[in-house]
Input
Amino acid sequence: MKPLVCIFCEGNDTKLAVVGKEKDSDNLKVFRTASVSVTPSSVNVKAGASGISLDDGALQLEGIDGEATMLESDVEESSIDEIQKVLSGLNLPKYSFIPTLTEPSIYYHLYEGSRSSKPAKLKQDIIDEILETKNVSVEEDSIDFTELSDRSLLSVFIVGEVACINLINSVAAKKW
Output
């Protein structure tokens, strides 16, 4: 079994676990773990803002007047650096990366229509039904499905960019 780097992203919280088999055993072992908050690296705020508060996870700005000013921070870069520290010393080409996505990054669609015997045609039929019923355009490589006990198909798909995938790409682009 190839060792795994499992990355779970939910909102701004990212959890990472490095797992694999113990030497001379079939037992799985967790080698390393990390929890990182990933937030945007910059925020646009107008000069003269006052009354800044954080209520229920929402940033409130009052009294905004004047020119827009960019406030910079290294939060995003430091998040990647923190993940890099957890992965340091590992021969990453020997590991498989598995992103785990949840709502709101993924969407579901229950398909009960006619079934083509060709998997590519069936996938296209599901994509067409999603476009017709939800008015959402889905790329063929962004969807998959599984059969449920009642023989209907549950499809899972993503639309647009997914922050967790971007995070993995950023980590992969770092010089190790």
Notes: Helices lie at 75-87, 119-134, 163-173. The CA atoms of residues 49 and 63 lie 5 Å apart.
